[in-house]
Amino acid sequence: MSSLINKHVLLGVSGGIAAYKSAELIRRLKDLGADVRVVMTSAAQEFITPLTLQALSGNPVYTELLDPEAEAGMGHIELARWADIFFIAPCTADLIARLALGQGNDLLTTIALACQAPLALAPAMNQAMWSHAATQDNLALLINRGAKVFGPDSGSQACGDTGFGRMSEPAVLATQLSECFSSGLLSGLNVVITAGPTREAIDPVRYISNHSSGKMGYALAQACAEAGARTRLISGPTQLSCPANVERIDVTSAQEMLDAALACKADIFIGAAAVADYRPETIAEQKIKKQGADTGTTTLTLVQNPDIIATIASDINKPFVVGFAAETENVVSYARSKLIKKRLDLVIANDVSRQDIGFNSDDNAVTLISATGEEYLEPRSKYQLALELVRRIAIAYR
Ligand code: PMT
C-alpha cells in the first residue's frame, strides 16, 4: 500500500507547460499523507501561480533565493534539511543541465546543492529536446549521482509533436515516489529496537529518568519498517506516535525493557534507548516525606540495572547487535570500548554534550564503529540518518 505518511516532500516546479500538473500532483502527494513544501523557478510562475500551490500544499511557496521574509521563516538551508526527498516535477531540460553542472544560480538549484535527501526528477520537455545527446548526458550524470528518474511518458505533446517527453501523470508519480521509501533492504528480517528513556521509580510520585525523547529510536523503527523488516519497537515513555507498520511495546523501567527484549525474537537488535544504569534499591510504597528536622539532604541508595544490550549480545544464538554510545568526551574511544565490552557488532556513537544533536534534538551526527573501522556521518535529520544507518546495518548484517 503506497504511503507517504509523515514524509517531508520538497516539490520543485520548473518552467514547462506541465507545471499546471503540479497542482494535481500536490493533491495526490497529500492524499498519501505527505507534508508538501513547494519551491518554484521564476519560469514556473509563468505557468502556474505560487498562490495556487500554496493553497493546495497548505505551506508557503518559496520562489526567491534572497527573500528576507522567507529567510526569516524557514530559510533555504533549513528547507533543504527539512526534506526527506527532493522531487522536481516537472523538470525541464534547462534545469537538468543546471543540476548536472551543480549550478546554484537560483533558489531551486541552490537547494539542490544543499539538500542531502534523495533527489527524484520527473522530466518534461519536447521529444527532440528529450532525445538530444546533451539532455541524455546530463541525465546520465544525475542518475550516476543517485537521482531517480520517473518517466517521461510518450504521447502527444502541447507543441503538436508526438514522442517521449510528456511528464508522467500525477497519480503515477505519487505512487512511484512512495515506493522510494521502501528499499527492501531488510525484507523478511525481525528487527527489535529499544527507544526512549526508562523511568526508575523512587516512590509513587517520583522517578529517575533522562532527556531521551525517543526520536532517534523511532526514526530507526520507521526506516527499518520501510526497508521491509518486521519491526518491533520497545519504547520507554515518550510523546511520539508509533511509526506506520511498526509494532510498539510500551515499557517504563529498565527491567520491563529487558523482559520485553528477551521475549522478542530478533535477527537484528538495535539499542537506541537511554536506559538508566541505576535504580533506587527500594521503591517507597508511599510518597517520601521530608525527614524530621530538615537537614537539607537526603540519601537514596541506588543499585545497578541489568545491561539490556549486553544481555542480548551474550546469548549463544545472539542476533546482530547494534548499540548506541552516548558520550560527552573521548566519543570514539569510549564507544569502541563498549563495542568490545558488550560484544556488539556495531556501535553508533553520538556526542551528547552538543546542543544541536543527540538528546531530544531533531538532528543527529554519529560515528559508526565496527571491529574493522569507523565512519563519521555528518549532521542531518534523525530520519535521514536512520535511512543511512539502515543501509549500513543491512550491508554489515548480510
Ligand atoms: O531519544 P533521543 O532524544 O532521540 O536521543 C537519542 C539518544 C541520544 C538517546 C541516542 O542517540 C543514544 O545515544 N542512545 C543511547 C543512550 C545510552 O544509554 O547510551 P549509553 O552509552 O549509556 O549505553 C550504551 C548502549 O547500551 C546503548 O545501546 C544503550 O541502549 C545500552 N544500554 C545501556 C544501559 C543499560 N542498562 N542497558 C542497555 O541496553
Would you give an account of this structure?
With 398 residues, the protein is of the alpha/beta class. It has 2 domains: 8-181, Flavin prenyltransferase-like (Rossmann fold, 3-Layer(aba) Sandwich), CATH 3.40.50; 190-397, CoaB-like (Rossmann fold, 3-Layer(aba) Sandwich). The chain has helices at residues 21-31, 50-57, 68-72, 76-82, 93-101, 107-114, 127-131, 133-144, 170-179, 215-226, 254-263, 308-313, 331-341, 382-397, and strands at 8-13, 35-40, 61-62, 85-91, 119-123, 148-149, 153-156, 162-166, 190-195, 200-201, 207-208, 230-235, 246-250, 268-271, 278-280, 302-304, 320-327, 346-351, 363-370, 373-381. Helix 2 (50-57) links the parallel strand 2 and strand 3 (61-62). It is elongated and about 90 Å long. The mean pLDDT is 92. The structure holds ligand PMT. Ligand PMT binds next to helix 10, helix 12 and strand 17.
